[in-house]
């Protein structure tokens, strides 16, 4: 029902508010990640906070995924997200420094492409929104 979707589509101001919240959560997540150098007990607590931030980020990104009408970009975004999750699992199973270094480079490349794809998705949704 295209008509009902248009009535529920958020305004640019509402979408920009989501992006502002996503930026705040991402900054907090980055700070937490950088502080993981502490002891095991501290790291465990920080890891829980990072997971909570990631969950909040996912909820906001899912809003943009649902609103996007570009199936190609949506599918590529989901492929890259899946690829990143697989690479992280491989990272946890890595047995030596060489494997870790290669996976680190691969993960960084995948995440960079994933971020570009997310930017494209967000720009497309903002273009669909009314003032």
Structural features:
disordered N terminus, mainly alpha, single chain, 131 residues
Protein model, in words:
The chain is mainly α and 131 residues long. It has 2 domains: 11-67; 69-131. Helix content is 86%, strand content 0%. It contains 5 helices and no strands. It has helices at 2-8, 12-34, 40-67, 71-93, 97-128. Helix 2 packs antiparallel against helix 3 (40-67). The protein is globular and about 50 Å long.
Q: Any chance you could write out the topology, listing elements then pairs?
A:
Layout: H1 2-8, H2 12-34, H3 40-67, H4 71-93, H5 97-128
Helix pairs in contact: 2-3, 3-5, 4-5
Provide a concise account of the structure shown:
The two termini are 22 Å apart. Helices cover 86% and strands 0% of the residues.
Q: Classify the secondary structure makeup into a structural class.
A: mainly alpha
Uncertain ranges? 1-5
- Count of the separate structural domains: 2
Distance between the termini: 22 Å
Q: List the total number of helices.
A: 5
What is the multimeric organization of the chains shown?
single chain
Strand content: under 5%
Describe the global form.
globular
User: How many strands?
Assistant: 0
Helix fraction by DSSP (H/I, runs of at least 4): over 70%
């Amino acid at each position: 029902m295209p008509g009902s979707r248009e009535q529920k589509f958020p305004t640019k101001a509402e979408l920009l508010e989501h992006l502002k919240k996503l930026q705040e959560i991402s900054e907090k997540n980055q700070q937490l990640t950088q502080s993981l150098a502490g002891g095991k007990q501290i790291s465990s607590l920080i890891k829980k906070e990072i997971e909570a931030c990631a969950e909040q980020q996912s909820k906001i990104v899912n809003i943009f995924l649902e609103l996007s009408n570009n199936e190609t970009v949506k599918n590529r975004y989901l492929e890259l997200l899946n690829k990143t999750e697989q690479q992280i699992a491989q990272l946890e199973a890595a047995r030596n420094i060489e494997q870790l270094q290669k996976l680190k480079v691969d993960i960084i490349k995948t995440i960079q492409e994933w971020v570009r794809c997310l930017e494209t998705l967000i720009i497309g949704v903002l273009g669909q929104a009314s003032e």
